[in-house]
Amino acid sequence: MRCELSKLHVHAYIDGELDAAGTANFEQHLKACVDCSSTVASADLLRSSLQQAGLYARAPLGLRSKILSTLPSPAPPAKREPSAIRWLALAAGLLLATLLGRQIFVTTARVAQKPLAVAAVDAHLRSLQPGHLTDVESSDQHTVKPWFDGRVDFAPPVRDFAAAGFPLLGGRLDVLDGRTVAALVYGRRKHIVSVFVSKLQDTGTLSGDGEVQGYHWLAWQQNGFLYCAVSDVSSADLQQLQQLLSKE
């Protein structure tokens, strides 16, 4: 006989629609239920296969020539413009080149930062698999904070923000850019937020915000720590959590 919970909750769990308490309860259920575990594993395998399948095809080489052949011929060169107009055009071109150069610089900086953001999102996705969300499950900051003693070489700031809508669910160890980091786990309505905390170093830093695979990330530096919050909640929610964590 198939598990009734498989019909009621398994797809909500796979789609991330359960609240924090429901997610934790269902993960406990998965440890003992073969039917639900099999369904979740199959869904994870399907999702991974679709992401890696590269479902696209290159356009034929002759397509560009075919499209160009259907376009009208270019207009004949315009008459030589007066000197004042040429100077205005030159100034506009210089301004456009400056703006494009600045945009390229900003884009390059963001691309350089992106691998660490991708690693943070990947780590968050791994944590959503059954049994990986927390190593220490507690809403008590005085339980979670001491748990990290001896496991990382720093004391991560741990606080519960249940009154502000971000209840502390626990913590775990994770790995970003080859370094062991502390991951604080918060709830936000029916969603999970991972906040990765590590000591600042000369390399591998990250700041700003962005989106990877539909998940938002927000990174900042404070008091010698690098923070990176990842979730499928809105950017505004992550900014609110940042403000809470940034208060002394």
Task: Tell me about this structure.
With 248 residues, this protein is α+β, with helices and mostly antiparallel strands. Among the domains are: 4-42, no CATH class; 113-246, MucB/RseB, C-terminal domain (Phosphorylase Kinase, domain 1, 2-Layer Sandwich). Helices cover 45% and strands 20% of the residues. The protein has eight helices and seven strands. It has helices at residues 4-8, 10-14, 20-30, 34-52, 63-69, 83-127, 141-147, 235-246; strands spanning 136-137, 168-176, 179-188, 191-199, 208-212, 215-222, 225-231. Strands 1-2-3-4-7-6-5 form a seven-stranded antiparallel β-sheet, with helices on both faces. β5 (208-212) and β6 (215-222) form a beta hairpin. The radius of gyration is 25 Å and the shape is extended. Residues 104-113 have low confidence and may be disordered.
Give a quick rundown of the structure.
This protein is of the alpha+beta class and 248 residues long. The protein has helices at 4-8, 10-14, 20-30, 34-52, 63-69, 83-127, 141-147, 235-246, and strands at 136-137, 168-176, 179-188, 191-199, 208-212, 215-222, 225-231.
- Count of DSSP H/I helices: 8
Order of helices and strands: HHHHHHEHEEEEEEH
Strand order of the largest sheet: 1-2-3-4-7-6-5
Beta fraction: 15-25%
Q: What is the mean predicted local confidence, pLDDT?
A: 79
Instruction: Indicate the radius of gyration in whole angstroms.
Output: 25 Å
Q: Share of helix among residues?
A: 40-55%
Give me the CATH superfamily of the domain at 113-246.
MucB/RseB, C-terminal domain
Low-pLDDT windows of residues: 104-113
E-strand count? 7
Shape: extended
Intertermini distance = 54 Å
CATH class annotation of the domain at 113-246: Alpha Beta
Structural class: alpha+beta
What CATH calls the topology of the domain at 113-246 is Phosphorylase Kinase, domain 1
